[in-house]
Structures
1.
Amino acid sequence: MKPRRPLKRGDRLTLISTSLWGDPDSYPDALSLLREKGLEVVNGDPAPPRSGPFSAGDRTRSEAFFRALSDGSSDAVLSTRGGYGAIRLLPHLDLCPWNRTTLPIWTGFSDATNLHVYLWNRLNTVTFHGPHLRGLGSSPESFRWFWEMVSGEKTAGSALPLGRAEVIRPGSVQGRLLGGNLETLAHMAGTRWFPDLKGAILLLEDVDEPLYAIDRAFSQLAHMGVFSAIAGLILGPFSGRSPREDDPANNVVELLENHCPPDIPILSSSLPGHDLPMATWPMNVDVRMIASASREASLVLAESPFQET
């Protein structure tokens, strides 16, 4: 399932706090940028009172997310901020009557990986890995790449922005682009929502995690056979960590030597993660990953993320 079409002037974008609660008015720069594109921006969060750090209780939050995606009034849905709490929505979302043949453009990252994975499994829908409202106004490039993606400027044959890219292991492969935040994905292991990653090009990124925690998450995925099943691997930023005496390696790439088979091509990109600027990439679409022996890297859409272009 794909969103019906890209965004255009006059469309409605609904903000929703799927993780920690965020007040949209706290991010005036992002709101202004969206409105300058002619979008009607509305707040889809439940009415107060809030529940601790969340906009409401888990069931109410899940119903608000379902409603934003399913009632037909929104052309796009954007997570207000990340943090924690989306995983608590999943069993409640299982009870919702998902019966639409298309969904709005849904964008989020980090903790929203839980919801990307849920939507891939439940509806096999295309989603968008990109900044929350909180980050859209923090970097001109982040907003530009977001708008290029959701407005349809990027279509089949278009290269996705990589920023600073490095070929770690050469190879050229094609597969569905899946993944997101490493720790969030690892925490879903063993649940009924964990995605089928066979033949996928897997994106992994994280922030503020020491190397031992990254190694633990890599080990979890390796023990499940994930790295043996994928076609290729993209490493986003792994930022915000300080060296420790108990670090099991010098860097993330060294850690992968123990986990990822040598025939899996790997490249790194500075853009799909918690660092700024951040790109917006469509997920659950076919892409061609080219990591050449001459150290040139590209990631090209093999299909449009929209039904109509």
Note: The two ends are 15 Å apart (CA to CA).
2.
Amino acid sequence: MAARSPESIAVVVNGSGGRARREGSSLPSRISAAFARCGIATSPRIVAGEDIAAALAEVHDCTCVVVGGGDGTLGSAAAVLAKTGQSMAVLPLGTLNHLSVDLGIPHDLDAAAAIAVDGAVDVIDLAEVNGTTFVNNASIGLYARMVRSREGQRLPKWLATLPAAWTALKALRPRTIAIEADGRHHRIVTPLLFVGNNHYAITGVDRGRRASLNDGKLAVYAVREQSKAGLLAFALRALVGRADPMRDFIGIADVTELTVHGEGTMSVAHDGEVSDMALPLRFRVRPGALRIKVPPSRP
């Protein structure tokens, strides 16, 4: 197959986390080979997570940018590419790869590369909190503490899960949160408030998944009050991506805007990353903000 123009597509990979780190030095050649089989000659840029934005700036003339990494990397890249209008394609090279699953992007590099080259272009919503973009969800409370504690462990992410959950639970105190959801005010007592970019299924085999990524809504849930033993079980499920919305959450509403009122700062988890943000926290959805490659057969 004749090689296509290398200027039409670029590949930028976060080499510092998840599957990309495990692949090691063989990853660039494997990616190049996968795209070569699709007729694309490309040299992937393997960069540290904090250098993703700078790497994207260097490929501003490409019509499609393939981003390899986990959900945090994809969120950072989406914020940049939504501004430039370039299409984003995905190589699932993180730990959990929730966005890839919801988009129907396979784990296999060859299959993901084929979608990047010949897939359909769709538009999906992005969400943001205080100007920080997320593609999956954001939360405050218990999960943010767990992620921060896990980051402090010198262990693989999966192995750091249990001590991170235990550390967060030891410091847990009930918290009353004042929120405003599409103009309606609520006061809730919860260890964790969850805000999803589009609606998450809470029943059936697809629970924890999103049937649509462009409904223009934020899904707001609060974790049920329960014992510390129950919260420990929830913490473990959440950290490995197995939280059960029916068992663990109380649905509040699907909204377009949400404000968490208060003063000072609060730790916010967003797509597996944690940032300290000034209150009030203002969440909003940006309908159809990102052009993205999806399987041609995706509904």
Note: The chain has a mean pLDDT of 84.
